[in-house]
Design a protein that fits this description.
Blueprint lengths: L1 H15 L4 E17 L2 E19 L2 E7 L4 H21 L13 E5 L11 H18 L4 E19 L4 E19 L2 E8 L6 E3 L3 H6 L6 H13 L1 E2 L3 E7 L1 H13 L4 H4 L29 E4 L20 E6 L2 E2 L6 H6 L9 E2 L8 E2 L4 E3 L6 H6 L3 E13 L5 E13 L2 E7 L2 E5 H6 L1 E4 L5 E10 L4 E9 L2 E8 L6
Parallel strand pairs: 4-6, 9-19, 10-17
Antiparallel strand pairs: 1-2, 1-5, 2-3, 5-6, 6-7, 6-8, 10-24, 11-12, 11-16, 12-13, 14-15, 17-18, 18-19, 18-20, 20-24, 21-24, 22-23
Helix pairs in contact: 1-2
């Protein structure tokens, strides 16, 4: 009741001051971060953030303000500031802000969990990470010179209300982690292997049971052995060949070359300074051949366990599935209520989110997925006469329009006559987005899953958001791999 009183007071104050629309988010965020390096605790943090943010329209312009103090006096001050900013913004606009309609709902949503990550003792988490780190270091201490094991848990309790009558409560929980090690040989550069992927592991909107399901200890020896083997492996050849990408690398390819360029704020130029614009401009919608007929991409915030899964976004839009690319044709955007109205769309894609109650929501990726084309992973490999299979991202670079890219992975294997052969170190590949996806002819369904990454950066001031990408293993032809010419 106290929260409802606060939202009613905030929205009523905005209306009284002349706002034509207003919404408020009251949010409590808990974040637990643990990292073990070389047998020592390098990070052990438990952070809690409580606050609210008010967004409003007045005289055709947006205003936003927030605070950590949820008291009536502070709510009034912040509401007054938000309306004042909106009126000042409106005075400089040629056209007033318009919003597409959204169904007004009174609803609640909670991430389905079995074990609350914040009820599992910190000591237990530390012990599990220490054991992983210790086992890595003892595997071959003569060659394994760096070890690291990570865990992160996150919880958000959020109330959203607006002047249209929406009142939505949500509890979003995610957790995950992983480990990495570095092998150092006197005769070769150091090599890194990670599990279950780089970027500190893998994450899911689930309880602590997800972290346990990654079975870190069971994968220590194989991962460390691969790091050691890489120090003796041949350099990835430089050539044009058939390229297979496994799920962890493919998820970043999707993220950078489809996820970001289909964010409509980038396309319209309001998100340009931090990480670029987009080649997928409005005039290309429903006409650009983004990829082959085997490429279908979706934005879907309803997938169980996806790191971009929730009930409602920060505009009160219900979670949904939206097609971005259908059978190779570019057909949709990730949008907000405002940007959808600007380009003539009937509804928002439902991905407006902020990483803090004191920050303005932005269009953010949810779960951006490559839908499987029906292949089995082993069949793709057996069907490949000659090629290279790459796994686990190590580096990435892509231009500001998301066209030209180069990625590096931790490890690769040669494929000859349908069988996996020798290992390669320092693998890289490069391409141009529509050409690259135009050369995809297979993606698998048996190993399809949603990978989670909690560190997608966007905006100024910067915000870090948690997103997911569903994919399996995919095959691409005529791809340039190895060291680029002139370097």
């Amino acid at each position: 009741m106290l929260v409802r009183n606060s939202t009613d007071y905030a929205l009523g104050t905005c209306r009284d001051l002349g706002a034509s629309y207003a919404d408020i988010r009251i949010v409590t965020i808990k974040d637990e971060d643990i990292s073990i390096k070389l047998g020592n605790i390098s990070v052990m943090e438990l952070r809690k953030e409580i606050g609210f943010g008010i967004r409003c329209l007045a005289d055709g312009g947006w205003g936003f303000a927030g605070s950590f103090d949820i008291s009536n006096g502070e709510i009034r001050r912040v509401a007054e500031l938000a309306v004042k900013i909106a009126k000042a913004s409106g005075s400089t606009r040629k056209n007033p802000v318009e919003l597409v309609d959204v169904k007004t709902e009174t609803a609640s949503y909670s991430t389905p969990i079995k074990k609350d990550p914040f009820k599992v003792p910190t000591e237990q988490k530390v012990e599990e990470l220490v054991e992983v780190d210790k086992k890595l270091g003892e595997h071959n201490p003569g060659l394994i010179k760096f070890t690291k094991a990570d865990y992160r848990g996150h919880s958000e309790d959020k109330t959203f209300a607006n002047t249209d009558g929406a009142y939505i409560t949500q509890k979003i929980v995610f957790c995950g982690g992983g480990f990495s090690c570095m092998a150092v040989s006197p005769s070769a550069p150091p090599q890194i292997r990670s599990y279950p992927g780089s970027f500190r592991g893998d994450f899911s909107t689930s309880g602590y049971e997800f972290f346990e399901s990654r079975k870190l200890l069971d994968n220590v020896e194989r991962t460390a052995d691969e790091a050691i083997a890489l120090t003796k492996a041949k350099q990835c050849p430089t050539e044009k060949t058939t390229l297979l990408l496994d799920g962890h690398q493919l998820m970043l390819q999707i993220h950078e070359s489809c996820g970001h360029p289909t964010e409509l704020d980038r396309v319209l130029g309001t998100e340009a300074a931090y990480a670029g614009t987009s080649f997928m401009t409005v005039d290309k919608l429903n006409s650009l051949r983004y990829g082959s007929e085997h490429v279908t991409m979706t934005s879907d915030s309803t997938i169980p366990g996806g790191l971009g899964t929730f009930g409602y976004d920060d505009e009160g839009v219900k979670a949904k599935r939206v097609e971005l690319v259908k059978d190779g044709l570019f057909v949709g955007y990730q949008s907000s209520r405002e940007t959808a109205a600007l380009v003539g769309l009937s509804e928002s894609s439902g991905g407006m989110r902020a990483d803090s109650p004191q920050k303005l929501p932005l269009i953010r990726m949810v779960n951006i997925n490559l839908e499987p084309s029906g292949w089995i992973r082993d069949d793709i490999i057996e069907d490949t006469k000659r090629g290279i299979l790459m796994s686990t991202n190590k580096s990435w670079s892509i231009d500001d329009k998301r066209l030209n890219f180069q990625f590096g992975t931790e490890i690769a294997w040669e494929i000859v006559d349908g069988e996996i052969g020798q290992m390669f170190k320092n693998p890289t590949y490069t391409g141009i987005t529509p050409e690259f996806w135009g050369n995809m002819d297979a993606s698998s369904k048996d190993d399809w899953r949603v990978w989670g990454t909690p560190n997608c950066g966007k905006g100024q001031p910067p915000q870090v958001m948690y997103v997911g990408h569903g994919c399996g293993t995919a095959r691409f032809h005529n791809v340039r791999v190895g060291i680029m010419e002139g370097k």
